[in-house]
Amino acid sequence: MAWVSTAELAAAVSEAGGLGIIGSGQAPPDWVREQVRLARKLTSKPFGVNVMLRSPFVDEVMQVLLEERVPVITTGAGNPGKYLPDLKKAGIRVIPVVASVALARRLARSGVDALIAEGMESGGHVGELCTLPLVPQVVDAVDIPVIAAGGIYDGRGLAAALMLGAQGVQMGTRFMCAAECTIHPAVKEMVIKARDRDTVVTGRPTGHPVRVLRNKLSRQFEELESRCAPPEEMEKLGVGKLRAAMVEGDVVYGSVMAGQVSAMVKEIQPAREIVMDVVRGAAELLSSASRWVVTGK
């Protein structure tokens, strides 16, 4: 959600009763500090920041978050172990994203507070397992709370995640079309127009595959993969492409990272409306679940 989940969206989600997360991506520390302070002006509710551990600014960003006493940090693309002692000492909750049981076990042993088990249905960087088999395996493997992510759009996804043993869900793609999301309108329009097979995973040879909406850039990646181009060539092609899409509106040659639920997004809605739709939908489903109980000997 880099360049997508800014302070405006994070604050709106928190105000609606969720936990809004600012996506720091590869942004410099000054930008992250500005976003944290803006979020505090927009909401008095808790919010968090996602830190991509492959960012060239990761050390500086972590220091900013310690200084600003952000209550929750989620992490991706690595192991936050080296930062845990300082974060825990500051009372900051640390919740890494995992895509495998092995990593989940390792991080749980390191002392993180919870885990986000993210299936490959999600947008952006993905693993190899789908949400439905991944979540219960992670739940069974650790003794800390697990949050489900990937392919979750409405109350049906939340209800399913809870039945799999998760304590909550993380959602991204639907919030791209929240009214408070500051991404370029062309990206929102592309998400709304997306069909069920309009996402594709590119960049597997680099070791950091991403799910995006199909466009000319994704086809360029596919061409490079088909001729076994060096990973360095693919990484070079991707430089700056996420910002090009989300900020500048280049949905042709930009990287439009979005999940498979793009096909389910049909309109732009306020964040509060999205949150309430998900929660109410799940509550209705769960309250009627007893009709599926099998009785008898």
Automatic annotation (TrEMBL):
SUPFAM superfamilies: Inosine monophosphate dehydrogenase (IMPDH). The keyword Flavoprotein applies. Pfam families: NMO (PF03060). Keywords: Flavoprotein, FMN, Oxidoreductase. GO terms for molecular function: nitronate monooxygenase activity. InterPro entries: Aldolase_TIM (IPR013785), Enoyl_ACP_red-II_put (IPR017569), NMO (IPR004136). Nitronate monooxygenase that uses molecular oxygen to catalyze the oxidative denitrification of alkyl nitronates. Acts on propionate 3-nitronate (P3N), the presumed physiological substrate. Probably functions in the detoxification of P3N, a metabolic poison produced by plants and fungi as a defense mechanism. This is Probable nitronate monooxygenase. Signal peptide: none annotated. The keyword Flavoprotein applies. It comes from Desulfofundulus australicus DSM 11792.
